[in-house]
């Protein structure tokens, strides 16, 4: 048996590098699934693995065999269930920093001000809107459902797009950097269990995108003029344009009313429906 000293001396820089890389991959993986439904399923898998380990240890052969079968076929089921998350994760990996640098816009205006002003204007005039701001995970697949644009992001343009009867007012606007790259886009509806039958599709779509990607999704309610934000699988309501500005900048914001939570249960802002 090797003693601890000779073991420590046998550790090379390659071992350190490998441990570092594996730790980083696990950390990024956990950070990615945090707040998504994958985390809940991961919890279920851990419970089943524990039961399997116990059954193995206690030699409960029938339970062990049954769980073995479940794991064999469960892999295929998980691949189908988590197809959107896997796609998002692969897209995330594919976005190497070089392509990100190339994408940075040449002129850096204050997009947070343009968006906050637009949200304020839309809310004041009771015009419904949904604005998805792309972050690390590409929103290209959702652009396909709407109209592609290459327009500089301005308050006026955002307000114009969502004006009722405008051809592009239905659906979401997608913002990438300082550009509006899509309008009239259809977002995935949240899979969360429905606790309010009056829940509207606009808020459900915002939460759906926030469950599948790391996008910041801003919603202005047509019915209540409430400003909400879906982010990291959570929907928060009752925000001010100033708070929207901070969130676009990436600053944390304290919000009193949380409508959605990480269990997938959520309800609509008071007074809707
Ligand atoms: N999947 C979707 N992706 C993007 N936008 C959507 C989607 N589904 C609905 N919408 C938008 O939401 C509008 C319908 O909103 P609805 O009244 O059902 O939702 P809501 O959450 O109650 O919002 P509001 O409070 O503004 O009424 C549609 O006209 C469309 O513009």
TrEMBL record:
Domain of life of the source: Bacteria
InterPro entries: C-di-AMP_synthase, CdaA, CdaA_N, DisA, DNA_integrity_DisA_N_sf, DNA_integrity_scan_DisA_N
Domain DAC residues, every copy: 83-241
Assembly: Probably a homodimer.
Xref: HAMAP family: DacA
Entry similarity comment: Belongs to the adenylate cyclase family. DacA/CdaA subfamily.
Name of the protein: Diadenylate cyclase
Organism: Gemmatimonas aurantiaca
The encoding gene: dacA
